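User: Can you fold this complex?
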Amino acid sequence: MLFNSISFLIFFPVAAGLYFVIPRKLKAAFLLIASYYFYMCWNPKYIVLILITTVVTYTVGLLMGKDMSDKKKKAVMGVGFFVNFGLLFLFKYLDLSISIINKLLSPLHISAISNPFDFLLPVGISFYTFQAIGYCIDIYRGDVKPEKNFIKYALFVSFFPQLVAGPIERSKNLLSQINEMGTKKALFNRDSIVSGFTMMMYGLFMKMVIADRVAIFVDRIYGNIYLVGTAEMLLAAFGFSIQIYADFAGYSAIAIGAARFMGIDLMENFNTPYFAVSVADFWRRWHVSLSTWFRDYVYIPLGGNRKGTVRKYVNLMITFLVSGLWHGASLSFVAWGGIHGIYQVVGDLTKPLKERVCKALGVKRDVFSYKLGQIICTFLLTTFAWIFFRAGSIGVALTYIKRMFTRWNPWAFFDESLYTWGLDRVESLILFMAMLVLFAVSIVRYKTGDDIGKALLKQNLWFRWAVLIFFMITIVVYGEYGINFDSNKFIYFDF
Amino acid sequence: MEGTTRKKVIQAVSILLFLAVSSWCLYKVYDVLRWKDTTGDYLSSFEQLYATDKDLIDVAFVGSSHCFCGVTPAFLWEEKGFSGFDMSVSGQDRASAYHHIKELLKTQSPKVVMIDLFAVTFDEHAEEGNVYRNLLSMHTSKNSVELVKDYANKSEWENYISRFPIVHTRYKELTKYDFDLPRQNDYGRGALFQFKENPQTEYVIDEKKVKKAELSAENKEWLDELIKLSKEENFEPVFMILPMVMDEEIRSVFDGAVDYLGDNGIDVLDFNKISGINIDYEKDFADPTHLNSYGSKKVTLYLGDYLEDNFSLEDHRGDKRYWQWDDDLTWYYQSKAAYELGALDYYDDVLAHVSTMSNVLAIISLEGIKEDEPYDYYNALSALGMSYEDYLSGGKWLYKDGVLTKVHENDPAEPDYVYDINGKDTLKIRYDGDYLHDGNIMLNNESLYAHGAKVTIAVYDLFLQEPVTVKGY
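Assistant: Here's the predicted assembly.
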């Protein structure tokens, strides 16, 4: 069940409405049933995987909560890791592993092996697996106590707003709120409803009006890289930066909004990432729940920056390569992660040089223009890296980059031929206007720190209504959906 | 009331109010974007049905474009005073026909429902547009949902039922008629008037080649359901096959339906076999499967006699409640006169025709006329009341209700003449120095000037509320 489907339009009000009216003691159980129903709308069979992950990590949590030696704890933890990462490997990485092995075997004239399984990637497996593993590590570290109530724990793993594409929640945040569901604090609250609804509308706007509209152009260009020149390829590269942001941040806004509507605060996932002043800053703002997960559960356990400069860079590279692999079973994702790792290593290494150059040239560093330059440079670097993310293979990405810099055709900006790649003049104008709205909302977020849901709550009623009705009408009229439209899946559902 | 409770009540009310306001806004947006028939000048049987007061329709004609081209309620009204209505939609399929009748029966109690059998010749629409016409023209109700379930694939139900997924992309094709429906929808009776004669070659059916085929189970079920509905709703069903050029294959399907209905004691009026109607294949067709208004008149008059002979229908002429049938007839004659005017080429013929038309406003412009003109433009104008001096001096005239009035001299210094014809259309007349300026006669933002002509004759129909022709000489 997609967030931008009529099924969800019916499901969510019914689920939220019932959630408000049922007795407090039954709220968690009800949300669990609703979440399982939500998930089973994709493929009922794969609910078994969530159940396995839930039962295993619940048991691991309970066992580690008992008084036992570190060795035993590690063994229990190891079992939890093995089962969960094993499932993830089986469903997501087996194909890639076999193809790599076959490539290695090929020069030795050993016959290729085939995948004994032919599984479809279960929706959201990377997200809920990481969330459940994070819970186990928190208990292992003693940061949280094991949850004894199975229903509440199962809801933590499968809470429907964030089940299939995050935010990847921390047990400290979400479990404590699930435990408070029965209290007065979590009852019907107008501010939560208004704020949550606003977030959902804004998320749908980002996804349906912007992301899916840019996707039409981007897909056409990436599908015809031998027919286009620099102008189209540059625009498609920038377009994909916008598309993936509007798509994933849009999804996150809907998820956060749906949860907030029911009185549950999920962690933020995006904080104006394209206003970042460095790649490191970008990762503090992009997919925050995942990047902090890798920081807390991979980078720091590897030693972080505590074991010398070389180890720090090695740890950074490992973290980003794994992060790339998390996004997809393809070497192009690994390359994308690697590029971001290299950006950070090179950025750190050249920092003294950059400071010296600025000093020598008298560059003012506390002015808007300096910051704007940093933002532009960071945006260009991330846009370049996205090419690997979008291309599907390293070969295609390299071809794309080569042609983008060698097939110079500036006349395409003036002869209107750009309008022949899926977005005509009207569609381009709609996209431009929608991006102005996105920019305005981002400015508010950047300046005030409030997401649109919270920012709008501070405004007068007429303005709130006007903004909400604007989003509703824009979505239903200019949203990309309906008959003959099939690119409405959220990109991150594939991860 | 305690403060907290009061606050909660205010909050709940504000949420409810927001839901009401936003729903109203979305409804208004939907009303603009909703499916409207764009092949028949935005005219729709459903719009016309919904504009009709309760219990006025005596006889409904149900079917596809064959029906709205082949049966014209205006003729039935003119000849017999029976209040007929074409409940017909392009390509109306079996399921749509059934549910369209149910929709009509919500507000009307026709004594007779005459159903075109063309729907038995196909299972699915060949054109997507016809699916939209049939499934999206009705107001949303239990009946429209049932129609979607009966016709569409399950995977498409939510699109057809909620409609927005289909119609929202119309923002790229909106016209003024999406905001302001043509006024014919207020009084039209479902028929399409066509005056073009498109000669056809009659295909003589070789009866030996007509294979006797049993009617399909789907067709039998459809006919059974219609008969059942007629008993439940107390109307007389009459089936008909309207004139069309057909081959043996189609003929055999129709014959199967005729036989099946005959077995059930129900007659079928097959206009391809009824003698005495005298359908003229040279003059009575708009295309191979559709009659024009001349052919339609023959069929409708026959139906009028049939209805008179077999049912006791009342003559409603003179009853003010039936004003839509009067206007429909006026519309027919205005449309016919406009078509005939448009088809005329010669200057004298055009002016002679204009002088016979009622409910029109003609704008006549003369520019650069000399005494020794090789063609005598004056003769026809004098018949309208123009003096020879005026003729030679040129200028612009309005001709309305038999009166010719000069409204503008050929003088660039003279202020523009502006005339609000009605609440929507404004005429602006000026003189820009010669006959090469389209701005000399403007209707709103549209030029009614024959660029480069010495004489311009533009005619605006006051009943139809639209310009019908611009001629230049």
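The interface with chain B takes residues 6-7, 190, 193, 426, 461, 465, 468-469, 472-473, 476-479, 481-483 of chain A (CB under 8 Å). Chain A has three domains: 18-187, 189-270+403-495, 277-392.
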